[in-house]
Structure formats: C-alpha cells, structure tokens
Design a protein that fits this description.
Chain A: It catalyses: (2R,3S)-3-isopropylmalate = (2S)-2-isopropylmalate. The structure holds 2 protein chains of 2 kinds. Chain A has helices at residues 6-12, 39-48, 78-94, 109-116, 147-156, 181-192, 207-210, 214-222, 238-244, 253-263, 313-326, 346-349, 352-362, 380-388, 391-397, 447-456, and strands at residues 15-18, 24-27, 30-33, 58-60, 97-98, 124-127, 141-144, 158-161, 165-172, 200-205, 231-233, 276-281, 288-290, 298-300, 341-344, 372-375, 401-402, 423-426, 441-444. Helices cover 32% and strands 16% of the residues of chain A. Chain A is an alpha/beta fold. Chain B has a single domain, classed as Aconitase, domain 4. The relative contact order of chain B is 0.17. Chain B starts with 8 loop residues before the first strand and ends with a helix. The chains are: A alpha/beta, B alpha/beta. At the A-B interface, helix 2, helix 3, helix 5, strand 8 and helix 11 of A face helix 4, helix 6, helix 7 and helix 8 of B. The complex binds iron/sulfur cluster. Iron/sulfur cluster (SF4) is lined by residues 63-64, 108, 110, 129, 131, 346-347, 407, 410-411, 428-429 of chain A.
C-alpha cells in the first residue's frame, strides 16, 4: 500500500466527490461559527429558501465584538450589539447550539471547541476564521473559510476545495529555559516568511513538537496560518488522548475505546512523501519578538532589527514602510524599547497554561507604572479556572486586573483598542498595521516575555528575571 | 452570492506596489460589523486612503486622479491574513473585477473567485513590467481574456498566460456559485454520511 501522510488519510476519508477538473467536495464534521462572518451566510440561505443541513454539527459563540468589561450590561456599540444579537437569532431559528455572552460555554471560538471536547483527531473542522488552524493540534484537518463557504457548509455540510500540497516542519531537540511554543512558531515564521507555507497544509513533527503540551501545540497550529499555510496539524498521541478524555463531548464507554484505536492510526506512514520539508533545531530558538508589521518580522529578543541591506525593489520599500510605521530604525536593538500596553489573551495564548505562566512570572513583582496590562481569558472556563487557582489574586497584588473573555485587543473590533502611536506587546498572532487599533504598534511575543515587559515597562528578555 | 458573468475585460489599472497587503489593510476590522453585504467599497483600504480626520491621503493610488480602472495590481503575497470575505467584497464593491499579483494568499484567492473577482497570478518579472507600464503611462490599457487565460499589455502586445481551475473558470464565466452545486448533491452527501 502507498505510504500516506496524516493529512492524506483524513482528507481522502472525507472526499464525497472529486469534481472533474475541479475541486474536491469535502465533508465537514464540525463547523464553528461566530458573529462576524456568519450573518451574510445566513442571509444567503434565507434568500435561497434553505435550512441548515446539519445543525447538530454546528456550534456558535460571539467573540470578536464583545466587550471584556461589564459583559452583564448590554453592548454599547450598536453595530456590535446587532451582530451579536443576529447570531443568537440565527442560531435559534436554525436549531444551532449557541454559547452566548456570559454563559458557561462562552469564549473565543477556537478556545471553547477543544475545551468542550468538540475538537477531535481525524475530523474535518472549519470556521469562518483563519485561526481555525488551532484545532489541527489534535490531528484534525482544520482551516479557515470565507463567508460564501460558511454558507456552503450550512447548506450542505460540505465545501469545495482543491487538495493542498503537503509540507512537514520537523523541530527536534529541546527548547531552552524561557523559550515557549509561541517562540517556536514565531521562529519558524521568521525563517520561512509569511508566504512560505502558501498552498500547503503543514504537519509539525519532531521531538520538540511532541514534548509540547496540548496547549502549546494549539499555539503552534494557531499561528501556522501566519506563514501562509492553509493550516497546521500534529499527529495525535497520548498527550492528545489524555487531554480529550472526560471532556463534555468526548466519546464515552465503548465508543471511546473505538475512537482511541482509530486515533492511534492517525500518523504519517514511514516514507510518506511531502511536497516541502523543513528541519529546525529547538536549541537555536530564543525568546522571540516582532519588530515590524507582519508576523514574519521576528527576531530573538536580544537581537537587533536587520539592516535590510540585502533587500531591493518592493521588498525594500515594504521593509522601510513597515519600520516607519513602527518608528524604528534598521539596526536598532529591541531590548529596552519602551512599551505602553501589554495584552495577554487571544486564541493564540488565552488558555489556562498561558495565565499560569504569566502569573508565575509576575508573582511578588509589581506592574511597571508606564504600562497598561490587559489580561483577557480566552473563555469563561479559563476565567473560572484562573479564579479557582487564585491567579487573579496574584495579578491583583501585582497591580493588574483580570477582564472577561473575548477576542479583545487581538483585533480592533470591540472596545479594547490600543491608541494611535502606542506600543503594545501582545500575545496574539498578528502585528499588521492597525490590527490592534488605527495607528497602534504591535510586537508579538510569548506570555513569558509579555510578563517580563509588564513588570519592567520595556522590551525585556524574560530569562534575565527568571 | 450572485455576481456578473466574467467576459473579456479591457481596462486601465490602479497600481499598489506594496507587498504583503493584508486583509486588515484591505478592510479594517472595525468595518466588519455589518450584517448585510453592502457598501464595503467605501471603506476599502480605509486607513491608507484617509487620514484620521477622514481627509483623503493624496498620494494613495486610489485617491490619485491619474489612476482608474477595474484592475488592481498589487505586490507579492496579496491578501494575507484573515479569512474575512469582506476583503473580496470591498474590492469588488469598489469596482474592481481583477486583482493582479505575483502571489496571492490562499484564502483570499478562494474568496475572490467565489465572489466574481478574478485573481490573476503573473510572474514577478511580468508584474514589474505592469507596474512600469502604469508608471510610464497611467492610461495604459490591459486586457484580461479569461477564455484564453491571458493577460496582455495592450500597448506593447506583451502577454502572459495565467492559471485557473477549469471548474472555477466555468463558474466565473457563467456567474454560477458552488452552493447550487452542493445543494444538488444532497442525496449523495446523505449516502456518504452513512
Ligand atoms: S482571538 Fe484574535 S485571532 Fe483569535 S479568533 Fe479572535 S480575533 Fe481571531
């Protein structure tokens, strides 16, 4: 039998039809929806007189637009309120489970899926959101889709997709102290660039990947989209199985044993062919920070911004435009640069482990006077756990306050915007111009680096304070 | 979503010689709050097009009266970032029917085609030629021939072929979309589920 990759195994098992000269009709097991990319899709269904085909396989939550303070009050911004309300109404009309604001199941869509055990190995998972790639951490094919495609999945539980190429990124060795999953993925993107993965689906492999926790794996797969890939995935193993076990929607009893037996077959066969392969050594990675306006513009926190001398043409103009936006100069060192805001949260780093790492670091220290610190749990469940473990007390003693769950300052769509010209160290995934607010300047980093910055007020190597 | 059928297009083009134009620039998140698909063109490239007092920024190509047309030419890795289809809607709604680049981000490319906006991939060298042609003469005409999958600089007659999936080409030429196709397949999908 032909050796297959993990990706092939799952993809091929979900092809309903191969359209002649066209894409595959791919069956979707799980569909997540949120308030921003779904209303026009529901409107489309209505115009065509269609119902949702498989409401049971669809789960909804509002996350992008929601405030992270006073969630119990009605949303002030009228357009946001309307979108959130529209999601609730559409779900009600079509019989879709909806985890509304303030309820137990509420949170950023990519955080609640895994938390509830809805995300499982071997599945095809889509959502009208590029960071759907997060779910690939479980050995699922998970990718973001556009609103037309959301409408397709609502109407037929299928999507039309050409089969992407396959890439494997192997990271072997051990991550050094103070270096996290976030640094690992920022490092990879800095190496292959924001378009290096285009047209591909990535499998992450190697001992450094295997030794990551489920949460760390989610961080890596979350950001796989930032190298241009359709998504990233990691073969399921005991770490995966132990994480899923006992969760609300995990299979139970005999079905569990059957599922586990199947999950154990989900790995790339020996000799399976990838279109592109990369290898990295975990020991080469240090805590990372971005200096520019795309996630590929990252360097080790102790390094200096490149001179850009080797660039020409539009490459050069793009590089200089980016530094101008950040008000940085080529050759500047990053350490010691002033920071105004620190944001811990998002579907990249808004899980309990991220808050534990941050709390552990700031325990007994004080927030620097010049920074505002926004601590935003990725979900209600994360928020509850933070309180149960008393982490909120640690934050309070350090002079930082916990907010309520949502996408928050990851994108400038709710009240949490970084003001124009201000510098933010953010644990989210995108540092595009204006991503965190018009004129806001973003530096992406790990929760540990963010914690170090929160107490010093400047770009800091977290290892110096550990 | 229904859109106009794509036939051969002859037009001048608007240059945007910047790389990695991401979807947050094409349509910033704060304009994604609509629940209908209307008026996104007004906010296309909002923060590059207008300053904070909502005054047009003169040297941004969309505000530069020398440039017009239904073709947008962008630097490599156009459309990176989020899956927001609003990016494709905004470009289409503004009046463009074709985006040319040497490289597109995957999700954007799919979203564009699904909405009648044709992404044309040309070689980096040809892209430079196109930018130069517009710089030398903002009135330069281009022809986009979908049937023959050819992009031509009319002045010099230089052309390059571009690729498109045959099924998607058929959809664009006939203004069809995938949803009709999938809904017709329901029985087959039900059989697959078992
Ligand atoms: S946290 Fe950020 S990246 Fe994640 S879903 Fe929300 S807006 Fe998108």
């Amino acid at each position: 039998m032909e050796a297959k990759t993990l990706f092939d195994k799952i993809w091929d098992a979900h092809v309903v039809r191969q359209v002649e000269g066209g894409p595959n009709v791919l069956y979707i097991d799980r569909h997540f929806i949120h308030e921003v990319t779904s209303p026009v899709a529901f409107l489309g269904l209505k115009n065509r007189g269609l119902k949702v085909f498989r409401p049971d396989q669809t789960t909804a939550t509002p996350d992008h637009n929601v405030p992270t303070l006073n969630q119990e009050l009605s949303i002030k911004d009228e357009l946001s309120r309307n979108q959130v309300e529209m999601l609730r109404k559409n779900c009600e009309e079509h019989g879709i489970t909806h985890h509304g604001l303030g309820t137990e199941g509420h949170g950023v869509v990519h955080i609640i899926g895994p938390e509830m055990g809805l995300t499982q190995p071997g599945m095809t998972i889509v959502c009208g959101d590029s960071h759907t790639s997060t779910h690939g951490a479980f050995g699922a094919i998970a990718f973001g889709i556009g609103t037309s495609e959301v409408e397709m999945v609502l109407a037929s539980q299928c999507i039309m997709q050409p089969k992407p190429k396959k890439m494997r990124i192997t990271v072997d060795g051990e991550l050094k102290k103070g270096v996290t999953a976030k640094d690992l993925v920022l490092y990879i993107i800095s190496q292959i660039s924001t378009s290096g993965g285009t047209g591909h689906f990535v499998e992450f492999a190697g001992s450094a990947i295997q030794s990551l926790s489920m949460e760390g794996r989610m961080t890596v797969c979350n950001m796989s989209i930032e190298c241009g890939a359709r998504g990233g995935m990691i073969a399921p193993d005991d770490t995966t199985i132990n994480y899923i076990k006992g969760r609300e929607f995990a299979p139970k009893g005999a079905a569990w044993d059957e599922a586990v037996a199947h999950w154990k077959t989900l790995k790339s066969d020996e000799g399976a062919q990838f279109d592109t392969e990369y290898h990295y050594d975990a020991a080469d990675i240090e805590p990372m920070i971005t200096y520019g306006t795309n996630p590929g513009m990252g360097i080790g926190v102790t390094q200096a911004i490149p001179m850009g001398d080797d660039l020409e043409g539009t490459d050069k103009t793009t590089f200089m435009k980016s530094l101008k936006y950040m008000d940085y100069a080529p050759g500047d060192g990053m350490k010691g640069k002033k920071v105004d805001y620190v944001f811990l949260g998002s579907c990249t780093n808004g899980r309990i482990e991220d808050f534990r790492a941050f709390a552990d670091f700031v325990k007994g220290k004080k927030k620097a006077d010049n920074v505002n610190v926004w601590l935003v749990p990725g979900s209600k469940a994360v928020e509850k756990q933070i309180i149960a473990e008393g982490l909120d007390q640690i934050f309070e003693e350090a002079g930082m306050a916990l907010r309520q769950p949502g996408c928050s300052a990851c994108l400038a769509m709710n009240d949490d915007k970084i003001p124009e010209g201000k510098y933010a160290v953010s644990t989210s995934n995108r540092n595009f111009e204006g991503r965190q607010g018009p004129g806001a300047r973003t530096m992406l980093a790990s929760p540990l680096t963010a914690a170090a910055v929160a107490v010093t007020g400047v770009i800091t190597d977290p290892r110096e304070l550990m | 979503m229904a859109y106009d059928k794509f036939v051969t297009l002859n037009s001048t083009a608007v240059p945007l010689p910047v790389e990695n134009v991401d979807t947050d620039q094409i349509i910033p998140a704060r304009f994604l709050k609509a629940v209908e698909r209307k008026g996104f063109g007004d906010n296309l490239f909002r923060d590059w097009r207008y300053n904070k007092n909502n005054e047009p920024i003169a040297d941004f190509p969309l505000n530069d009266s020398r440039y017009s047309g239904r073709i947008l030419v962008g630097g490599k890795n156009f459309g990176s970032g989020s899956s927001r289809e609003h990016a494709a809607w905004a470009i289409y709604d503004y009046g463009f029917r074709v985006v040319v680049s040497s490289f597109f981000a995957d999700i954007f490319k799919g979203n564009a085609i699904n909405n009648g906006l044709l992404p044309v991939v040309v070689s980096p060298a040809f892209l430079t030629k196109i930018f130069n042609a517009i710089e030398n003469n903002p009135e330069a005409q281009f022809e986009v021939d979908l049937e023959n999958q050819k992009f031509t600089l009319v002045e010099t007659g230089e052309s390059e072929e571009f690729e498109i999936n045959p099924y998607k080409k058929h959809c664009l030429q006939n203004g069809l979309d995938d949803i009709d196709f999938l809904v017709d397949m329901k029985d087959e999908i039900e059989v697959f589920e078992k």
